[in-house]
Amino acid sequence: xxxxxxxxxxxxxxxxxxxxxxxxxxxxxxxxxxxxxxxxxxxxxxxxxxxxxxxxxxxxxxxxxxxxxxxxxxxxxxxxxxxxxxxxxxxxxxxxxxxxxxxxxxxxxxxxxxxxxxxxxxxxxxxxxxxxxxxxxxxxxxxxxxxxxxxxxxxxxxxxxxxxxxxxxxxxxxxxxxxxxxxxxxxxxxxxxxxxxxxxxxxxxxxxxxxxxxxxxxxxxxxxxxxxxxxxxxxxxxxxxxxxxxxxxxxxxxxxxxxxxxxxxxxxxxxxxxxxxxxxxxxxxxxxxxxxxxxxxxxxxxxxxxxxxxxxxxxxxxxxxxxxxxxxxxxxxxxxxxxxxxxxxxxxxxxxxxxxxxxxxxxxxxxxxxxxxxxxxxxxxxxxxxxxxxxxxxxxxxxxxxxxxxxxxxxxxxxxxxxxxxxxxxxxxxxxxxxxxxxxxxxxxxxxxxxxxxxxxxxxxxxxxxxxxxxxxxxxxxxxxxxxxxxxxxxxxxxxxxxxxxxxxxxxxxxxxxxxxxxxxxxxxxxxxxxxxxxxxxxxxxxxxxxxxxxxxxxxxxxxxxxxxxxxxxxxxxxxxxxxxxxxxxxxxxxxxxx
Length: 595
What we know:
Layout: H1 3-17, E1 21-25, H2 41-46, E2 54-58, E3 62-66, H3 71-77, E4 84-87, H4 96-103, E5 109-111, H5 119-130, E6 135-137, H6 142-146, E7 159-160, H7 163-166, H8 170-184, E8 188-191, H9 194-201, E9 203-204, E10 217-220, E11 225-228, H10 236-244, E12 247-250, H11 255-260, E13 267-270, H12 277-282, E14 287-290, H13 294-300, H14 304-333, H15 340-352, E15 357-360, E16 365-368, E17 392-397, E18 399-401, E19 404-405, E20 408-413, H16 419-436, E21 439-441, H17 446-459, E22 469-471, E23 480-485, E24 498-501, E25 504-507, E26 511-514, E27 517-527, E28 530-537, H18 555-572, H19 578-587
Parallel strand pairs: 1-5, 3-4, 5-6, 8-13, 11-12, 13-14
Antiparallel strand pairs: 1-2, 2-3, 7-9, 8-10, 10-11, 15-18, 16-17, 17-20, 18-19, 21-28, 22-23, 24-27, 25-26, 27-28
């Protein structure tokens, strides 16, 4: 069925229900970034893949709001449909609620699915639209009425994380959460995000591709912990461990009724952007305490055990990347065919050579030449491009291991490079190393660090539109809050946080460049002015030096790279074959001083 046919069916259902505009998102009941196929509603309707994007449909018009990462992908997906691309990252573009207020009349009705829209978003829409005397409905899923072959909810298997990897037992974590609950006056706390339950109860799952979080909820009170999950996902071992920890297990679907039956005197803590609007309606008889998500803050600070294991994962992942690069260059040098998609499959196979590998942490970005300029480019059979011994290749990938989650980006040359490519690459590298080697005052925010990272690029009149970095979970989601590095981030960087640094430079139709390392926030020193932090580098994978213009890279960065590559070779070579060691030794050769 084509997009325009789906729009016609949707409009027919809208007319039956008296809905004048309908909002369709790729959101699930937990506000996860990556969602199972069942909740890929916007992607199904519009054909545009990717984590960010919302479609609005009226009787006469349809539009897709998405950010700059997905402009090119959206343009390609919408070519054969009537849906108009709305470039929401551009200055002066109206957000969805403003557009609706400008294009609908008083007393008309806007619908959205409250079961799959978080409270923060739903409340924002309702309040804004009410100001224009527009009505809202959140009690109907129109997509479900027309998506005839809609996938069922996933039934993946849950597996346990041993305490020796987690660093803390389930009981210890529950105690920590209850202590935090006391400070807010909460008598109950509902964990809405799936990764919160994973962290608290030391387990992972297989419901969502490339994300180790099964669909579940957890409700904590001073005397009980109730875990809501489909029972077929549990193994006898996991069931036994949860019961031994005092956990009550209930069906996933029973969460709504249980919330409705809570005593009205209960003070329950919720995080507005982690809980669906529908669930808050089930709790409307209770006193709802809206606060920061306790578990998100706790799990962002990695304990010593987690950091130790993550360092092992980064070495394993670095070795897997070297295996891949050795294979790639060997194939190309021998004139054998390689495409973006075959390269993606090979990289996953290289990671799978290691016993502790679970799955990739996100769909690998394999951007050859112009495709590298497409932020968050996703290769598939329809977009796959052959590689050749020219231009440059951007590879952004990661893995989930027993020891933790990885995320690394490298840009490599496949043939002769241009001076412009070298200048762009060197500016990106300069920016990345400026932040990676920075010492900064305690209390510094992601926005402040973002500005530091962009200085070198700005100096040369270059910039990038995505964020500079994001938090990373421990064997959990590759994008984890609360911290991030971007111009909009007010969160403070704290000791123990694991974050990426990944500036870039993109020229539409030509090439894309991004270099990314993961870092661990540690203490640097303390003076009479307070404590100062620094980043401990965690990523060990060679950074290509053939693309560097040494005349514009500071000497202290060249010195850092030479020392870094010495460490890369020392740490990775024991995991490699003789051929792979030879390739790595060449990549890690010292950079000579500029003449």
